[in-house]
Amino acid sequence: MKTRYLPVSVLLLALLVAMPAGAAAWEELSVEQKQLLQPFQARWDDMPEDRRERLMRGADRWSLMPAQKRQEAGQRFRHWQSLTPAQRDNIRARYDDFRQLPAEEQQRVRERYRRFRQLPPEQRQALRDRWQSMSPDERRKARDTWRDIPPEERDRLRERWRNMSPEDREQFRERWRDMSPEQRRRSINQQRGRSGGRRGG
Predict the structure, then answer these.
(1) Could you report the per-residue pLDDT of 30-39, keeping only the tens digit for each?
(2) What was the pLDDT predicted at 167?
(3) How large is the average pLDDT for residues 95-120?
């Protein structure tokens, strides 16, 4: 008798192992998940498993969010929907690049973004406008110059910038714009030498 039922139990086990874990069919979703994911209903069962899982996790996170966070997330989603396919692809590629960074570099990027978000809206817009007005070569040089500066020196430069008056900042910007890349490097090295002398003395 045992041998007769063995193939059935093996078959059931094989089916259980082959079933995708976590990729629920539409009928298996909770009422709240169905409400949130309703736009995907028609094609839900044809979607790749990983996409369904991401959507389910997103729906679960959404249901746990406070009202303010939901509003912010809704704004981000509407902004995402307004982007062209090329813009979305660019963002996805940049996100993939970010995920390839070492953990400590990811943390530095998050910290820079957090500081950027704390700036007044007009200052954030001014920074965006300046960045947009730069050529690709100027952007690359700016990134390279900043990367060459040790983290502790960057912190000192940020602190000096915060302590400058608006007039001093504008004068500095004008001087910086007029400098060649070599002059900019020399200026940074002079600043490093001065702060190194102060630390040593």
Answers:
(1) 888 888 899 8
(2) 85
(3) 88
Element (DSSP H or E) covering residue 179: none
Q: Would you say residue 168 lies in a domain?
A: yes
Let me know if residue 105 belongs to a domain. no
Tell me how far apart the alpha carbons of residues 6 and 8 are, in angstroms, rounded to a whole number: 5
Q: How far is CA 82 from CA 88, 129, 136, 186, in A?
A: 10, 20, 25, 44
Its pTM stands at: 0.45
Domain hosting 189: range is: 164-201
Which residue do the tokens 């406008």 mark? 129
Tell me phi and psi for residue 41, to 5 degrees: -55, -50
Does the residue 196 lie in any domain?
yes
Percentages of the chain per state (helix, strand, coil), in multiples of 5: 85, 0, 15
The number of folded domains in the chain is 1
pLDDT at 200: 46
**Nearest Cα residue to 126 out of 169, 159, 175, 77:** 169
Phi–psi pair at 65, nearest 5 degrees: -75, 145
- Residue 189 forms part of a structural domain: yes
Residue 192: predicted pLDDT: 61
Query: Rounded to 5 degrees, what are φ and ψ at 152?
Result: -65, -35
